[in-house]
Amino acid sequence: MFGWSCLSLGGLLSVQSCPWVGGRSLRSRRRLLLLEPSVERLSPATGRRHRIPGHRDVLCILWTCLMERIARLVISKQNCCSRLPAVLNSSSWCTVKPFANEEEYKKTEEIVRKFKNGIGGELHQKLLERAKGKRNWLEEWWLNVAYLDVRMPSQLNVNFAGPAPYIEHYWPPKEGTQLERGSINLWHNLNYWQLLRKEKVPVHKVGNTPLDMSQFRMLFSTCKVPGITRDSVMSYFRTESEGHTPSHIAVLCRGRVFVFDAIQEGCLITPPEILRQLTYIHQKCHSEPDGPGIAALTSEERTRWAKAREYLVSLDPENLTMLEKIQSSLLVYSIEDGSPHVTPEDYSQVTTMLLTGDPTVRWGDKSYNLISFANGVFGCNCDHAPYDAMIIVNISHYIDEKILENEGRWKGSENVRDIPLPEELIFTVDEKVLDDINQAKAQYLKQASDLQIFVYAFTSFGKKLTKKMRLHPDTFVQLALQLAYYRLHGCPGCCYETAMTRYFYHGRTETVRSCTVEAVRWCQSMQNPYASLLERQQKMLQAFAKHNKMMKDCSTGKGFDRHLLGLSLIAKEEGLPIPELFTDPLFSKSGGGGNFVLSTSLIGYFRIQGVVAPMVHNGYGFFYHIRDNRFVVACTAWKSCPETDAEKLIEQIFHAFHDMIQLMNTAHL
């Protein structure tokens, strides 16, 4: 679409990737239909000419329909993507160079040489054997190690959240609009759910290459369930061809839980009918005492939550039934009482409330919490285990386009059928459960108050200008971040940028290590008063070229962080000692083992924004999206860390944007 698709996180997709476009363009349909001249005849009834298709014309129509069917999201039987390769990347350890002196680097080089010629080669062969028997040798390992084995509270440390962009057009903040807008928002979500059920969401493509779509089946009716040592993911979603699927929505309001069905008499309930259900819940919760806030337990440390859940179920078998109703619900809809400040240039407060808001009105383990505020502002909070951010970006963009298309209104019938009122899920609790809830809320609110979140728009220019200068817009942001960190902290910052690997069967992500030797040399030149403009520009372009190549390599299965993870896990499973490579100080200093001080991701070229917590205590979380005339960045840091400051980092990034453009404009003068 923009010419940068192969190097992005999947946000730049062909027209076929947009479910509201319908797959094939009108122009291509016409091209097919012009293969055989058709016959025009005069209708005796109307006096108008009508076309009778030729035989080849009919075949072309049938072929078009067939191709459109093939292009749909066949998530139940998607076999078009190739196996995830297990590639040994011999140049991977160059990435530690920015963080090492000469002596340290030579020592690491020797460790790498021994590893490659010894245990590393043996582990790689074992990994190749594993890859022979699995279409994706990493899938199960990644899910477990990155998400399900993690014991820290996941609601703040693992989940991602983000504000909806509707305030930028038809839904500016306005008190009293929460329920009406919420009914329309939910209805568009339900329509997307139906597209998935009917397998009518076209397969995403980069150019003509299809991407794996399996993560989309985890968007609805999916929930993480806590375990003592390892969690699990329960997915209840089924396509129509696979059979029955849950069709109820869970609503959380003031510590209480309700459910209602989204299907009545075989069809979706309408916005007026959804409004009736939401109004009933809202009035009931605002005229009666608050509920116990069972949902807060999902914000607890994972093992404590697992034990609390076991106890809750032991109190009353009906508690398990109600938990499963929440787990299997299409999504959780949260009714918040707050009215966050938000403008198109500053999403900070609403994003803070989405990621760190009231734990009693969001189910932290749910794949999709749709959150509404009293002033008609929306956003989401999602568990990261089942899918990556681009899945929620896609549905959010779909809904944004639908709200625009319909001018923010419901234009259908106002009739409301006599449908059942929402059912309240009333858990059996005792003093221990209430104590567990209070403890969960206390630890959550303590950590939440420590998280610093800023989301600002840079509006001086955007993708249009960087493309004009032949600079990849994503790389532009990544290098600006490197320069900003270097200026703020006086040293390079090891950086994780997400590369999508959805070219491969059940592919998810790979790590792009953005802090390259080339990037550091450029940062140093920018701080060197004796470096010429031409030298700075040359070094910057070298850094651009290096980053672009790395992104392409990582997206096409030639990265190395996931491969190294595989080797370490093979050693662990075989009961072997941890190879010296993984205990070398430069391994963690360069970000290995989840120690990146900059955890970053491009989330596309639409209006959708998101946020995550930092990967490490002395680090930053950094999500951003790119538009023609602006960059919107979200930065997080822990207030308790004296070294970091999210707002200052953003200020430095915006300065870097200007410096980079000025460098391109003046280097040849």
TrEMBL record:
Q: Does RNA-binding appear among the keywords?
A: no
- Annotated keywords: Acetylation, Acyltransferase, Fatty acid metabolism, Lipid metabolism, Peroxisome, Signal, Transferase, Transport
Q: What is its main location?
A: other
Catalytic residues (positions): 384 (proton acceptor)
Q: Does the keyword Membrane apply?
A: no
Which reaction does this enzyme catalyse, per its entry?
4,8-dimethylnonanoyl-CoA + (R)-carnitine = O-4,8-dimethylnonanoyl-(R)-carnitine + CoA; octanoyl-CoA + (R)-carnitine = O-octanoyl-(R)-carnitine + CoA
From the UniProt record, which GO molecular function terms apply?
carnitine O-octanoyltransferase activity
Record-listed E.C. numbers: 2.3.1.137
Q: Which domain of life is it from?
A: Eukaryota
Q: In which pathway does it act?
A: Lipid metabolism; fatty acid beta-oxidation
Signal peptide residue numbers: 1-17
User: Which biological process, per GO, is one annotated for this protein?
Assistant: medium-chain fatty acid metabolic process
Any one cellular-component term (Gene Ontology): peroxisome
Task: Identify the residues that the record assigns to the Choline/carnitine acyltransferase domain, covering every copy.
Answer: 95-653
UniProt subcellular location:
Peroxisome
Concerning its family, UniProt says:
Belongs to the carnitine/choline acetyltransferase family.
PANTHER family hit by this protein: CARNITINE O-ACYLTRANSFERASE, PEROXISOMAL CARNITINE O-OCTANOYLTRANSFERASE
Q: What is this protein called?
A: Peroxisomal carnitine O-octanoyltransferase
Q: Organism, per UniProt?
A: Equus caballus
* Gene it is expressed from: CROT
